[in-house]
Amino acid sequence: MEQIRSSAHEMKQVSTISFAGLLVAISVVLAFFKLALTETLQVSFAFLPVAGGGMLFGPVVGGIIGAVSDVAGFVMRPTGPFFPGFTVSAMATGALFGQLLYKKPVTVSRVLTACVLNAVLVNWMLNTLWLSLMYGNGFIVLLGARMIKNLILLPIDTALLFSLLKLLERFRFINKAKGNGSF
Question: What is the pTM of this model?
Answer without folding.
Answer: 0.88
